[in-house]
Design goal:
globular; single chain
């Protein structure tokens, strides 16, 4: 099985090759509401998460929206 290494918020993850953003986020059991994701400093719209495949060396940044003031 081919694997890739990606970094999410400074933590390294080893994944199966051809993993989509949607599958990776689901594997983390994170709610998809109120979060944004950037890959290599480019924000990826949620509508594209199922279509975007992660690649070896990608750097992801996950941002949680916080309400209040």
């Amino acid at each position: 099985m081919n694997t890739i290494c990606i970094t999410l918020n400074d933590k390294v993850y080893k994944l199966a090759a051809h993993t989509s953003v949607a599958n990776f986020i689901a594997s983390l059991e994170l709610p998809t509401k109120g979060i944004a994701l950037a890959i290599d400093y480019e924000v990826i719209p949620k509508e594209q998460w199922a279509d975007v495949q992660l690649s070896d060396g990608n750097e992801l940044m996950l941002i949680h929206a916080v309400s209040g003031g």
